[in-house]
Task: structure prediction
Amino acid sequence: MKYTRISALAAIGVAATLSLTACGGADSGKDTSSKGSSSSSSSSSNGGSKSEGGSGSGGSQASNAKAGSGKGTEAEAAGNGATKTGSKVTFCKTEDLAIDATDAAPDEESGRINITMINRGSTTCSATGFAGVDIKDADHTSSPIERGQAQPRVTILKPGDAAVFDLAYDIDNTGNSLATPTDILVTPPNETHTVSLKWPAGAGAIKGAYTDVQVYPTHTTK
Result:
């Protein structure tokens, strides 16, 4: 009987131990599951935040870049369109210009020949720049005239408008001038066709050589 009671007590002890082990194992499993769940949630939350932030920022920059390049293209196209519109004003043709030369000396020391070009065509044109000028002498030779130190001004001529450019030189009052000009050969700016004008009667004699005469750029008379 004593052996039987000891065995029974031993069995009860083993059962109690197993019960405690089972409880401990269950609690440990709950803790592990809880920690794993929390860690997974945190990782998912942080990962989602980075992913959204990254894609949001990247998408914004791409959109801005596209929008910027689009606006730039529109601006450039508008600029090109304006340039093309401006380029429709072609240079005046010699055949559409009525050209004349007159003596416009301001005094007895300074010689000046005004050459006027009137647009007798039906469209607006540009006479901007320097005209090509040669002076023909009585000995039938001609000399090209050099440009004066001046910047060309935009000279747009509507039908009927006039542009003027000048020949400037010093007057020789000694009576010993070796220059005997008879004609002025004029080629309008950016043209190849030339017209011949008579040297204005009464214009002062040229002091020095034809290389001392200078031509200045065109300008409007308004």
In short: The chain has two domains: 1-88, 94-220.
